[in-house]
Amino acid sequence: MTGQAGKKGILRSMIEQTEFILVIMIVVMCILLSQLNEGFFTSANFRSMSRGFAIEGFTLIGMCFLLITGTFDISVASVMAMAGYVFTSLAVAGLNAWLALPVAILVGWAIGSCNGFIITRLRVNAFIATLATMTIVRGVVLSISQGNPIRLATAEFGQFSSAAIGGVPVMFILLILTVAVLDFMLRKVRWFRQLYFIGGNENSAELTGINVARMRFVLFGVIGALAALSGSLSSSRLEASVPNAYVGTEMKLMVACVIGGCSLNGGRGTLLGAALGLAFLFLLDNGMIMMGIDIYWFQGILGVFLIGVILVNTVSAGSFGRRGRGLGKSRQG
Amino acid sequence: MQRKSLAVLVLGLAMGLCGVMTGGAQTRTPAFAINGEIAYVAYYTTVPYWNDGLRGMEAAAAELGIKFDRTKNFYGPTDGSGSEQARIIDELVAKGVKGIVVSPADNNSILSACENAMKHGIPIITVISGMSNPSTYYGELGASNFNVGVTGGNYAAKLVNGKGKVGILTIPGVPVHDQRAQGYVQTLAKYPGIKVLPLVNTDADPAKGQERAAALIQANPDLNVLIGTDSVGGAAAARAVKEAGKVGKIVVIGMDRDKDLLGYIKDGIVTASVASKSFSTKWMAMHYMYWILADKMQDIGPGITDVANKIPPIPLVSDTGTMVIDKSNVDLFIKALSKK
After folding, report:
1. Rg (CA), chain A
2. pLDDT at position A332, please?
3. Residues of A in contact with B170 (CB under 8 A)
């Protein structure tokens, strides 16, 4: 009897986990898609998806951290474009790509830190501040480039995205390792656990001695640097800097975080959940092509799937767990 | 006497030469001065596609004595929003511009804004595509977008001997792209050995376009033609084909002549691009605008001008044609880019 109750408890606990629900949905989707199209379950398809996933995944880390603390950054797509431009331009000018990359990341960090300064020191709303940065940075990169892409199709430049170990892209391996380490730290390390306190109740966090402004300032710098890394890796894959690219990436990342258990109000979510959310979005997009969905239905069906996954999460949390908490249970530090 | 005749002849020649020179100078000084702004409203304005057209507008404006500067007179949303275009046109009318050249994002969204502009005496000319109600503008200029698809479709079909599977990357909901895609679809349907797959949306984003083109290639191992209805789609197709290691196995047809697309033609990854004549289209549009504002055409009779009497002063449709860029002529286009 006690054993059965224990098993039920474990099952209930698993179902309450957003990550568990997402894993189930991802597995089901993979099985369905592999039945519908033989091309889905191929190494080439997963290699292609993992490259795109890794590129956006690095910025996702920053977005997840910010959302946990109850804020966000919508300028990441513009930072990606700017960093891609800096990285490619320097490489075209003859600078070794390994040296150009840190310069681009530094530019991203500087933009992110500016956001952090405006938000934490000048007390400007994060939406307004990052919206302004988004516009300014995009405007600058478009003005400098006149909208023209800079193409650089060399092996040295392309290696950042094409390098692979046993067929698995190196950047994907690096992302998985980074997510695993940071997710562990979010659960176990004090500094990272404080992010949940900030998101849960900013004033209480301050009263307990946490320097909320400083932590957020650091995080905005980090997301800027990560967005710059994403932009540089994407330029390497595109063999070009495309100044008008990545529009809407910030929304995609925020949706991925929310699907993965983050709350727009802060204080909730895990990095693993966010990464699974992004994986789900990539699979969904890929699956729509695999299924040959009509182009005019594409967006609508995508939206229906998104609502579906949110509902499944809500129902699983509502039926088995804490009612009225929105998404499924996620670890909260 | 002979000396006198020679002097008269020299004088005459000199006067004639002066006349020619003066006459030449006069053709560069327009008889009618436009004191005000001619605005150009487009969409997805951050796409480099517009650069050639803006160059054409600037060149025509300089010739006609009109001030046109792409940094000041070029407007439009960074996405494909027709409602945003309508708002911009309304603002331009309120601002009191002299004329508006517009590339409509869709067939209907800006109809009332254009109608309002025309009521205020501000001529509207559309470039690239027209709209569902031709009474809301004087005329449209551009390559027949449907024919772009016909040209590209026949070109691709010939390359694969009328057999194979074709994928098309486009931006749905934008009339220009819808018409091009339909041109391709209907042309390729005439080849019984060719199967056209459902269209794929690039969202005008190179990264997203590459991701989706890659998925299309994996979903259809026997795909042998990949088409982009714009430069983003063409370049995305090229990158996906290269990444999948299928260069030479998949024929890639692009559109327009952006720097990276030309690079892929040079490298032999993109087979060809069907390019609209962006410069001449906008160059002509600026001239049309000048003629409308000057209102010198007198089709009813002497002294009775067209515009003042509601006679169409310009053709309703002016097809400005296309050009095919392939490995044989791509160097010329790449060389031209360095001069811009």
Report:
1. 20
2. 40
3. 295
- Whether residue A195 is predicted with pLDDT greater than 90 in this model: the reply is yes
CB contact under 8 A, A48 and B214: yes
CB contact under 8 Å between A52 and B211, yes or no, is yes
Judge whether A18 and A328 are in contact, CB under 8 Å.
yes
Residues B218 and B185 in one domain: yes
Question: What is the number of structural domains in chain B?
Answer: 2
Structural domain includes residue B19:
no
Who's near A230: CB < 8 A, 6+ residues apart? A55, A56, A57, A58, A59, A76, A80, A83
Q: What is the pLDDT of residues B148-182, one digit of tens each?
A: 999 999 999 999 999 999 999 999 988 889 999 99
Read off the DSSP letter of residue B75. E
Inform me whether the pLDDT recorded for B331 exceeds 70.
yes
Supply the range of the domain harboring residue B240: 145-276
Residues of A in contact with B263 (CB under 8 A): 151, 153
Chain A residues with CB-CB distance to B47 below 8 A: 147, 244
By C-alpha distance, which of B183, B182, B239, B194 is closest to B214? B239
Give residue-wise pLDDT tens across range B200-224: 999 889 999 999 999 999 999 999 9
Nearest beta carbon to residue A149 from set B205, B221, B260: B260
Name the residue facing A147 among B47, B235, B240 (closest C-beta): B47
Determine contact: A242 vs chain B, CB below 8 A.
yes
- Does residue B299 belong to any structural domain of this protein? yes
Residue B131, domain member (yes or no): yes
Q: Is the pLDDT of residue A310 over 80?
A: no
Q: Comparing C-alpha atoms, which of B253, B309, B292, B273 is closest to residue B141?
A: B292
Quote the DSSP letter at residue A293.
Answer: -
Predicted local confidence at residue B215, as pLDDT: 96
